[in-house]
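Student: Please help interpret what follows.
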Amino acid sequence: MSYKSDIEIAREANKKPIQEIGEKLGIHSDHLLPYGHDKAKISQDFINSVQSNENGKLILVTAINPTPAGEGKTTTTVGLGDGLNRIGKKAAICIREASLGPCFGMKGGAAGGGYAQVVPMEEMNLHFTGDFHAITTAHNLLSAMIDNHIYWGNELGIDERRVVWRRVLDMNDRALRDTVTSLGGVSNGFPRQTGFDITVASEVMAILCLATDLGDLERRLGNIIVAYTRKREPITCRDIKADGAMTVLLKDAMQPNLVQTLENNPAFVHGGPFANIAHGCNSVMATTTALKLADYVVTEAGFGADLGAEKFMNIKCRKAGLAPSAVVVVATVRAMKMNGGVAKADLGEENVEAVQNGCPNLGRHIENVKSFGVPVVVAINHFVTDTDAEVQAVKDYVAEQGSEAILCQHWAKGSEGTEELATRIAEIADADQANFAPLYADSMPLLQKIDTIAKRIYRADEVLADQKIRNQLKEWEDAGYGDLPVCMAKTQYSFTTDPNRRGAPVGHSVPIREVRLSAGAGFVVVICGEIMTMPGLPSRPAAEAIKLNADGDIEGLF
């Protein structure tokens, strides 16, 4: 049996004008800045006008550790949002924008799949409304102004060896990880070693996604530490006088984007920090606005719950004063089999024992999410090769963990396939069973915060941090940054820092390679193991198959 591709399904969508989608949430067309007919930005004036509205219920969708078998977290987020609307609830979806890097690399797009998608899919996965380009430009404006300041006399006394602000590009390009700039003689400045990160790892991205308005955005941008003097005194973006111009570049990018699902339900798509090297959640502006307009808001956090959900709880919810009413952990039979030792080529064959052997990975995530005081439901994202016995094995295991698993068929059936999940989630959210609390207190020392996540979420025995890193953390505490949360940069494929260790390993260590202070975003980035802040392309990048056909339509994007 052949199935239509995601892009074919998206192209056949019966989209409604974006003004009609806005009306569903009470947004008059005067408050929408349209980008074509099917996407728009929501005006700040409108956002300000609804702040007295009561908040809806916030539902987080997270997942097990990703495997090549596929999990479908965004697909489930969209499917659940559609399902809630199907059973008569007023629901909205909040997801992240797609990065061009993984889109042309290996991961693919970020608009859902099958009959649970957000459209326009092609544009969302490409330039969309230009938000990422604005972030890239604002970030690199600051880079240019730092080097320009040094060139014209270095009035602030910046130590060129201690410039910590790198450049960014929204593309996977390993050749730019470490570079030397200003070669070519006196007129080009002073040569120094630097490098590029991917745009979604930029502190500007994190700031845009955590800022509450333009004033807060400018304040946070000004707080970015870009360099140090020879006396180790910090130099900020405000000292360089770049914060005002950066805010101007980001003025439109700060406004949340409104689009729609295949079933014409409202979806906010805004911001996109990576979850393995940043905090992995869509913007606070989009989430808080959606909560003022809908009774239920379904949002996602990137990769597995050990990364995305942990940061959603400990960073985003802490900073924005949010509290989820329920959490959905997405799992697949295929991924359970892979965690149970089955090769990707053999996933189509029934293997109940392998499913059972792989379930401890799911169990670990359930336990971790529950530790935040929030009720958990498992969504089994159905694949056509799944057998009844395999699905039942997952349900039985989850029941033993004191939770429940519900089979979802949204990829094939849209909202019809998530009615049961939507009904149960609405019941849980309405019962107000959650007693949410972050994992650690603001006042806890930074190294202890890192240790808490490593031991309670990753189940590590120890954190390996040399004296240089310990001294750096202590210096930041002495400088007044000790109350900040920590943002772990780690492989998404495992609870450990080894991407090849599947399942639910114990007895491992978490080595810290580097720590970075994101004073504007308001967290300390902890880089663990071999994780890269500028990914590379695989041996056969997805870009090789992407092209325009004879009709001018895009092929190969998904």
